[in-house]
């Protein structure tokens, strides 16, 4: 594998990982040690060659088709990761509890798990938004619009949800 190809493959791997809101350590945790952070990082930098078998296993882990990881393919404009979903916790505190109670409890749980108590903003993942949509008995796009109307999510979140629907 050429050095340039390895770097392009690594860039695709990194893009998929970051789109899913995972750090290298997060990959290791989510895979229960199956994918070591140092190994995935070396694949992403192009320092280490990845076999076809391992690439297929990594694609399966990320839940994407193998061709999404191969250089030279940009189906659906996958080169640009979707915008991050960032909750404005200060504005959330001003939304009436009868509306925002489930979201406030969910955000508090995430903060507790991460040990992240800055109190200003909280990044959430696409999976979190889908879970919240189930809790609120709405589609992710309808819930996104609701959160934008409350001032809890930035309007850029629409692009993240639209990216999910592709």
Tags for this entry?
mainly alpha, two-stranded antiparallel sheet, 434 Repressor (Amino-terminal Domain), 166 residues, 2 domains, Arc Repressor Mutant, subunit A
The tally of structural domains comes to 2
Order of helices and strands: HHHHEHHEHHH
| Name of the CATH first level of the largest domain | Mainly Alpha
What's the total count of β strands?
2
Amino-to-carboxy terminus distance: 31 Å
Average predicted confidence as pLDDT? 86
CATH architecture of the largest domain: Orthogonal Bundle
- Structural category: mainly alpha
- Tertiary shape: elongated
CATH topology of the largest domain: Arc Repressor Mutant, subunit A
Instruction: Report helical residue fraction.
Output: 55-70%
Strand content: under 5%
User: Which residue ranges are poorly predicted, with pLDDT under 50 across at least 5 consecutive positions?
Assistant: 75-79
What oligomeric state do these chains adopt? single chain
The largest sheet is: 2 strands, antiparallel
Specify Rg, calculated over alpha carbons.
Answer: 18 Å
The number of helices is: 9
InterPro entries: BldD-like_C_sf, BldD_C, Cro/C1-type_HTH, Lambda_DNA-bd_dom_sf
Protein name: Transcriptional regulator
Pfam families: BldD-like_C, HTH_31
Organism: Streptomyces antnestii
